[in-house]
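Hi D.,

Good news: the full-assembly prediction came through. Inputs first.
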Amino acid sequence: MKRLLPRLLLAPAVLSLLLWMIVPLVMTIYFSVIRYNLMQPEVTGFAGLENFEYFLTDPSFTVAVVNTLLLLGSVILITVLMGIGIALLIDDPFPGRGAVRLLLISPFFVMPTVNALLWKHMMMNPIYGVLAQVWLFFGATPVDWLTDFPLGSVIIMVSWQWLPFAALIFMTSLQSMNREQLEAARMDGATYLQQLRYLYIPHLGRSVAVVVMIEMIFLLSVFAEIFTTTGGGPGDASTNVAFLIFKQALLNFDAGVASAGALFAVLLANIAAAFLIRMVGKNLDK
Amino acid sequence: MAYLQLQGIEKEFGNVRVIRGIDLQISQGEFVVFVGPSGCGKSTLLRLIAGLEETSGGALRLDGRDITHEPSSKRDLAMVFQSYALYPHMSVFENMSFALKLAKVDEAVIKEKVARAAQILNLTSYLERTPKELSGGQRQRVAIGRAIVRAPKVFLFDEPLSNLDAALRGQTRIEIAKLHRDLGATTIYVTHDQVEAMTLADRVVVLRDGVIEQVGTPLELYDRPANQFVAQFIGTPQMNVVPAKDMQPLVQRTALSVEPDGFIGLRPENISLCAIGQGQLNGTVELVEALGAETLIYVATESGVQLVSRQTERTELTVGMPIGVRIDVDAAHLFDSKGRITRTGKARETLVH
Amino acid sequence: MAHRSKFSPALILRTVAAWSVTLLLFFPLGWLVLTAFKTELQAISVPPLLLFTPTFDNFIEVQDRSDYLLYAKNSVITSVMSTLLGLAVAVPAAYSMAFFKSKHTKDILMWMLSTKMMPAVGALVPIYVLAQQSGLLDTQLGLVIIFTLSNLPIMVWMLYSNFKEIPHEILEAARMDGATLWQEYYRVLLPLSIGGLASTGLLCLVLSWNEAFWSLNLSSAKAGTLATLIASYSSPEGLFWAKLSAASLMAIAPIVVFGWFSQKQLVQGLTFGAVK
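Then the structure:
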């Protein structure tokens, strides 16, 4: 009886997550090796590796992978660098720091679709958008962001949304820095740059790793922004792997190919996840 | 018939036998102290009695009733935790009345009992505060008050003084002693501090590695230790224990009946210093600790043995000075090679007024 | 000891720099807020208008559109229900792992973490097919189930850390005081963990409300949430930025405020405790 209770308590959570994980996975594997089109359910049959071949040789695929990596890399770079900068700037108290924190983290809680439209219309519209007006103010021709720089625009939107997350993490991490260590360094005559190099950055190293891992996992699935603004275009210019799968599944209705692609995306995600899991696991042991 | 009886108590954590067969009888109203080094199992034993851990073997009887398999809530025991474990979301009054409320005692009775306990512990003006608003010493008193209100069969204390600063510790120790005198409650008190053990206990249980080394009154343990471990555990500074081999000239001269592989135990107060050549040994002063009411002098003999001497008088000795060492041979405890006592030394005299 | 004035030049510089960066980054959001109170004409004015008489017309107009209310209702219902369901499942699980630790506890926690790692798009096809076949497509129930499952790992983790922080000696003291298991939970554990429960619930609320991937793919006219509604404004049916801003503002304002209150939980929840 004593051992039954905890297991009973755990059961609903474990069982449901198990189903959530296994059922889609098994189905995806199944779909990926058969012919299955949602609009033509009569067409069935074993497809072997056909779907995979189709997905991988699709010219859009290479573009999508490149876009995904570009998106991931740029956003991570921007958020980490700027995030550290902001965290360092705000670390020491100054008037209005509380309000600044609130304002800074707000973009993260904005719905992704609102985020997308906010940028698409009010900021990036080439005639009436704020950015256009600023360009005009400085005598330059406004940029048609979504047409000329579709992936870049998405990168800007996503970075704006995730910067607060990175900054918040770094801010939290800095707060846990050992103050006495800094005082000792100061007494030893270290300049700010030296403190940065030998104390701050190493301490932040761990949270940078965490931020990079988390962002890798969540950014692989960037979807809403692309869906709402560029629709993946023009052409494939702003399609990432997630959107490509979506296109195959719900626009082309080819569930088979989409499933093949999905397995690929899962593989990518697992690689990133493996590192994060190890790091979190170490933390659990403490 | 003992009030609280432990029979063959065993406890295993995984494959490790932490408590290895404890037999103990405690009478009603006794103040028993469990003492021993870290890891000896004293806290575990207390928790077994409390019912917070299940025994792996053995039996526990309280006031005639077998409580070995009873849950903590039904044992009628109260525990004062090392960290006090007060309920942070309740006021002092609510903390102290919680158990009675659970037992559905009448409100008026609860109020009266809490008020009385609060008065004894000087907590009356703090009854409405929450633990957050109290100092460490006050929190500790609330923890004790919580136990008193219940009037349990046995009080269990788990190192209650270790989180207090030195001054408060001494003061609270006296209060606990007074409390016991006034309430006459059976108490089991766990500590690693042998001063607390010596001053509070009716009887002391010395534990090591899950086994009882010796049970006795504080002075019994001091004057008649059953083995080397107890001899060195009780008493500050530690008893000087020297291998007989290193004291051969002395052994032969005084015909001490100690085994060649045995040990000689000398309390610091049984070692006095004199002019060089005038004692049984010669040596050099290594360190002088002037404590005010007494002085401790650390000496290294010619043969390299380290000894501590205690005297009530002040001294002019300084480090490096040559000195003679006089040993009260009659007071020496003799141990065999395994540390068991073979001869108990003469105890100090009692001053009769 | 040198006397340092309270307003040293370094402090002033930092304050100015911090505020400049903040205002710059917050600007798009602030602009949204402003635009919500403009007329449509004012909203597209060139050069952009900073000073104007605010009007509440947009909010009223948006409210009058019946489908806005429908979508808002869906958002509220799906967020709240998934939070409650999530708590109902996560609390016992976290409790059992925190207080009845076994040698599998760590593995289970890590495994739960790994289920969150799977990109949503990986399950898109099967979930869509399942939803379609079980009639849960475009239903509130379907969304509630998906949201709950998506947030479950985070909730379990956060509650687990929360429960671990309660000193077990306090629960032992309750046991010594004669509390039965139920009394232990109700009188001691619950009051002590209510803060953690609330903030975990809050975080789940925020995550469900903002959830866009499944909302966009599994719901439309009947069970669509605000995320879906706003997305449908993406096609340029004429310029109506002011109304769009008003609608957006109403959709995001409560969540942003909730977010302000759940900063700490966000850090712990989304990094699975890897950053303290």
